[in-house]
Amino acid sequence: MTPTISPFMLVKAPEEPEYLQWLAAETRSLYQPAAPLYGVRYQVNGGNVTLSPAKSADDNFASTAPVESADWIEAEQLFGCVRQFNGEISLQPGLVHRSNGGVLIIALRALLAQPLLWMRLKNIVTRQRFDWLSIDESRPLPVSIPSMPLNLKIILVGERDSLADFQDMEPELSAQAIYSEYEDNLQIADGDTLKQWCQWGVAKRAAA
């Protein structure tokens, strides 16, 4: 039996934007998407919302499996939102939708400061499905929205203290995650491991 490879990676590195941007650039050079297009197209007709597989990169929730990064995130930025104006309903994609099929790099401090955000993100990644929830718990969604499949890898970047706090919070996930370190000479500690991890989705799809 082939061992399960975690969709999460932990990287010991400074959490400043320039480091995350460099890591994103390195990951883009290694990552090969398993498919050219991911995501769906949501169609809103009055109070009825339907979805169909994306056929074009221009579809509202389509993704070409990019590598995205963020040093700080809020719920709406990460998960998107449902807007209602003058009776018109619109769906706005978040980072998880835009990086569907690809890799999302996030500074650990942003998730440690917002544990509910982390719990929802972990649930989405492990279940490979995005369910629409109201950002404001006191106000339910104005319409029922079908959930969508979502295939995403997460790189969590943090310095020693952030990694220690995260490992205390998520000991099992931390033990299973791929681990690497950012070196002063701008090299990942184990580039082959990162490349294999990036290409895992390709092999998994080919074996399906």
How many strand segments? 12
DSSP helix fraction: 25-40%
Q: Sum up the overall morphology in one term.
A: globular
Question: How would you classify the helix and strand content by structural class?
Answer: alpha/beta
Q: Give the distance, in angstroms, between the N- and C-terminal Cα atoms.
A: 14 Å
Within the largest sheet, what's the order of strands? 5-8-11-1-12
- CA-based gyration radius: 18 Å
Q: Determine the CATH topology.
A: Rossmann fold
Approximately what portion of the residues adopt beta-strand conformation?
Answer: 25-35%
Which sequence of SSEs, written as H and E, runs from N to C?
Answer: EHEEEEHEEHEHHEEEHHEH
How much is the average pLDDT? Answer: 89
CATH arch. level architecture: 3-Layer(aba) Sandwich
Number of DSSP helical runs: 8
- Name of the CATH first level: Alpha Beta
Number of domain units: 1
Low-confidence stretches: 204-208
How many strands, what sense, and barrel or not for the largest sheet?
5 strands, parallel
Task: Give structural notes.
This protein has 208 residues and is of the alpha/beta class. It has one domain (8-36, 62-79, 93-207): Rossmann fold (3-Layer(aba) Sandwich). The chain contains 8 helices and 12 strands. It has a 5-stranded parallel beta sheet with strand order 5-8-11-1-12. Strand 6 (81-85) and strand 7 (88-92) form a beta hairpin. The longest helix is centred in the last third of the chain and has 17 residues, at 191-207. The chain is globular. The two termini are 14 Å apart. The relative contact order is 0.23. Pfam families: AAA_32 (PF13654). This is Lon protease AAA domain-containing protein. Residues 73-174 form the Lon protease AAA domain. InterPro entries: AAA_32, P-loop_NTPase. It comes from Raoultella terrigena (Klebsiella terrigena).
